[in-house]
Amino acid sequence: MTELQDVAGEEGRFTVTLAKQPRYVDASKCTGCGDCARACPVSTADVFNLGLNDCKAIFRAYPQAIPGAYGIKKFDRAPCVRACPANINAQGYIQLIKAGKYREALRLIMERLPLPGTLGRICPHPCESSCRRQEIDESISICALKRFVADQVDWDTLPVPEIEKRDEEVAIIGSGPGGLSCAYHLALLGYRPVIFEAAAEPGGWLRYGVPEYRLPRKVLQREIDYIRRLGVDIRCNSPITPDRTVGDLIIRDGYPAVFISVGCQESVHIRVPGIETEGVLWAADYLKEVATTGIAPTAGKKVAVIGGGNVGIDAARIAIRKGASQVTIVCLEDRDEMPASPWELAETEKEGIEIRHRWGVKQILPNGGKVKGVWLKKVAQVFDEQGHFAPKYFEDQLETLDAEIVIMSIGQRSSNLRFLTVADGIELTPRGLIKADPETLATTRKGVFAGGDVVTGPYMAIAAIADGREAAISIDRYLRGADQREGRQFPLRPLTAGKWNPLPKNNAPRPRASIPTLPIEEWRQGFQEICLGLDPETAQAEAGRCINCGVCSECMECVAACLPQAVDHRQTPETKELEVGSIVLATGFRPFDPKVLGTYLYGSHPNVVTTLEFERFLSPGGPFQGHVKRLSDDREPQKIAWILCVGSRSSREGANAYCSSVCCMASLKQALIAREHIGPQLETTIFFMDMRTPRKDFEKYYQRVKGQGVRLIRSRIHSVAAPGKNGDLQISYIGEAGEPLAETFDMVVLATGMEISPGTQELAEKLGVELSRHKFVEHSCFEPVSTSRSGIYACGVLTGPKDIPQSVREGSAAAAAATRNLAEARGSLLKKKVYPPEQDFLGEEPRIGVFICNCGINIGGVADVPAVAEYARSIANVAYVQENLFSCSEDAQNQMIDMIREHQLNRVVVAACSPTTHQPIFQDMLRNAGLNKYLFEMANIRNQCTWVHQYNRDAATRKCMDLVNMAVAKARLLQQLEYLSVGVTHQALVVGGGVSGMTTALALADQGYEVNLAESSDRLGGHALKLHTTWRGEQVHPHLHELIRRVQDHDRIQVHFEATVQEAGGAVGNFTSHLSNGALIRHGVVVLATGAEPYRPLGQYLYRENPNVFLSLDMDREIATNSRRLKNARAAAFIQCVGSRIPERPYCSRVCCTSSVDNALKFKEINPEMDVYILYRDMRTYGEREYLYQQALQKGVIFIRYQLEDLPRVTEANGRIRIRVTDHILQRPLDLTVDLLTLASAIVPRDNTHLAEMYKVALNEEGFFSEAHAKIRPVDCATNGIFLAGLCHNPKPLEDSVRLGLAAAARAATILSKDYLELEAHVARPVDENCDGCAFCVDGCPFQAITLLEYVKEGQVKKTVEIDETLCKGCGSCMATCPKQGINVAGFSLPQIGAQVEAALGLI
Amino acid sequence: MSKALDQGQKQGAVMVVGGGIAGMQAALDAANSGFYVHLVEKGSSIGGVMAQIDKTFPTNDCAM
Questions:
Q1: What is the predicted pLDDT for the residue at B8?
Q2: Both A373 and A517 in a single domain?
Q3: pTM value surpassing 0.90
Q4: What ipTM was assigned to the predicted interfaces of this complex?
Q5: Counting C-beta atoms within 10 Å of the first and last residue's C-beta, which end of chain B has fewer, N or C?
């Protein structure tokens, strides 16, 4: 979760700035049980599975992820949340509604809003206006969902939270939304709020202004009643008067704080002629009167309502319900300019109320002191050019409207604030509103706060509610004496551009739920509520439309679900500074996005996927559990095509010119594995340009894939199209002879290459690390992991496209380079752990402690753990049994230590999860408790029991008991074992003095280790002596000679010339080798760097028969000396794969394509007129080398492809060389006559048999040394302490030899840096009295750890075996082969295993 | 500043940026040879792209 921000300083002492993003889960507490993800209602694209499926907002990338803690994906808070003045968590409660968790949804709403049913009916919902769903269709019906939730619960029984009460009373003036909200939030904080309300009943405008058909009074009442249940004292008929001023409340009555929220309940009065006439009413008064008395003065009358706001609309609709004979609304604005909410307007029109737009009042027309009509004037403009309200009229366009009652509704203002006295000290604004801090709501009088319309002017109720909550927080801080702003999270406000969840891929329009209403004809008949609310099914479906803009909705279900209390939503981003000596950049790559190229239909057709996506299809842990299917119809494809070089080796806009190096092999592998998944009938076709399989064992793999029927088509792709609607795809391509072809497939996989992300490019720029033209880190062939900034190193794909083993090797190489200059600080920052002394229990009865884990609900939710514990107590020798919620948690570990001591336990069984992951943790706990770590046994009752038998609880419980019994049976027989270790000789032997051997030697010597370097010839340098330039154009000799000089001058390197290893013995940490020069060397590690040789094609292609036929290395020298025959040559040719990629040498020599192309370019430089031909099979200029190939094509080098079955024929002709080759395009023989011929011959291994035998390392079929593991241990040999460098491992170019040389040094240093090596005590032990020396075990040991020996016992020669504990891996092969029980693996002896078996069979 | 003093100030710690296969290997080797390593990873777990791969060539081993 951390990124590098900046680096200051220099090598040896950098100061690094890191930015850490919150995980929102405390990784040290999280046990990875996954309960949180099951509770999380938010689904989001699973990034690990490349969006092919969904995961939860709280997730773990994959089950084996390290760390295994979950994390929360959280973006900016959703626009709906930010648009709400009160920041009500709309996304959160919508998600909870979706999951059917209505109570939880209501709880979430009520964290900020005490009146959910009320606001769910009357709120103008700015949240909906900002909803991003509108980019697809319509906004979510957020307001109606809120109402839905509020209507789902019984408010009379809604529980009141337990609150710790405080003594302070707080006075609140006004019981409208602001006052109620403030009282509610203060009550939740423990205060005793007292509301002073002037009216007879609480609710303010909600009760006296909002008509009942929009807000039934019982809804308001139940919510006010709930607020009262929290301990809020609402005192009605209690106005603030001169007898009880604000000052009195504070000074006389002792309220330490006051909140004023009296709203704006008075109509704005305007002056027009006749306004004083009887029959002119003010809307606010009118609404209040009807609400209070139920009697309307408008009954039976013709009514004109002046004003197009919501209040005017309310007045008109009430009038018509109260029996007005006719109601007309007159407003200045056009329909779409009116301030009234559009949905209210629509309802009004449906009720048959006429609205006359663009008219203003000129005069009220009286008749006998009473209103008889309104004289209207036509509106010329409502707003000026700046959009300000500035009405103008046509004074000559007049009309009369008959009316007996005129209701004026042109705005509202604050109630008469006469109750405030000068002595109160509360300042007002010029508009006559209370002046308050916009954030804290503090007025000019200390301890007095104000909010709602009385501060802002008329605005929506939800804003007053927001103010009420803010005021409560301010009052709390005020009363606690805390700072008003420190650490305070003020409400979030809308963002213009936030970081939000992208719109979903499947964004088919789903219109919003329509809200049912009363039949229209019933609307006018009374005050029954018009909107009827959603039913649960519709509500859940509507909630399901939410696109989760913030990803995590902060619904807090994860917090509730997490038993170890690891979830922490309060975490914030952190910045951290660290001091380090050096830096290694390994930021990797991003896969090329083929959407950039429209021709492949990627992104628009579901059956076109990338290779990485196809990996997820194939993975059993992937989105489809390893089932390959077409996303269009879920059908298993029967015909799949792979297209190589998508976005690589291309000059197209947005694509990359280089070769990505891995896609050929990845596609071959996928073709093979796909057949394993689907069946042998699967047709697999690979469209490629050149098949590039140049690394170790790749060519053999390629041949194997070809042999299994994968079709390979050398081609150029024109396009992918989907001509029909059945999901099939047609690939149009150009065949090898230039013919246009097309074929149809079920599915297409695009082999997309690698590229460096823009973020990494920016980082490199910030750090001052130069990048190549292809944006990889620029480096030299001699320092392949160094960057342009000293002390900063790079490895992996960042330095160029490469596969896994190359990345691993380069990682090791970077470690060597990055630690080399810090050698004197080695070990300075490491801490060593100290354990208490271990008690000796020899001869004591076993006292076994059994700890049974619930693993949250992973085990306890399936098996009856208390029953298992009860059972365990009944087993013999069990002295103590305990259940743990999470045995791996830190507190459980500490408690187990206490119990071990308290009950004097001498064996421990933990019944929990997998020993593979958790055994080391528990063994460490044993050591901390003073027990030998081998007195431990684990029963895996989770992975092997409750996870696989979750639907059979009884059987799972019984199996748990059996597993515990088995573990106890073995534990009874456990013995404490001695910790084994072996000292390390801090010296290295490097065999071979070429570039890689010297590189290793120097790197180790710089680290402070003594190095013996054995070189078989009389000089250092190896093959590099014959190289002149690298493919990057660097001169080899200056670097090489500097390297030789440093090796020879180094104090800690002793070079042995003309020396080979004669005899060797020992094992990791302590080898002994005899060199042919008589030296006897003791060393802790061996690095084999014996190099290789060029293949000499005697009898082929006139080699050594014609002086103008060269091997590549010889041609290098020819170019370096700029020979006369080179200058005079008119034509030259190269033949590739001479001795490589043939049945007897089935590997690619890797360097030859680049070398020939490079030399061809040099020929063209010497003589641009020279005809240069390269006869090749596949052009393998991998990685950034592709650039050279492209250059050669541009410079006119002619490339002719030949087939293995039809080799070129070379003859002499008139002093020149004639080559006959079949042209691959024309399919006809072609004769070339050249002056020079270069044979790109294979690299062949030396005879390594003797070395391999002496050091017990393996050779592959071709005679190169074998590494321990092709992918993850590519530098080590299977035998510990032996490492490989250079060409003896496989053909490779100079820079790879340097890489491997450094890598071998890094690997060797992991041993040489230690004083001793800890060995596993679970190794084989001979039982001398049983062993008769038959030596079956000696042959059976895969690690050659056993030797046969004889000694004299009681005068007789006794044969027995001896184990080298440094070599033994405890695999047990010896035990299985021994007919006499003469050998045992400690901790797995026959009696121990036998006891387990007996326990399993129920015998004990 | 004398050279000795300058050298005495060197930090025995390495920062590795990126927890993919290359970064992890660099971190392991540096740590196992006596240096304190800060491994910095942008994502929620280490493993990089290799963790997303099903099987690896040329041995067809599981990438996990």
A1: 54
A2: no
A3: no
A4: 0.92
A5: N
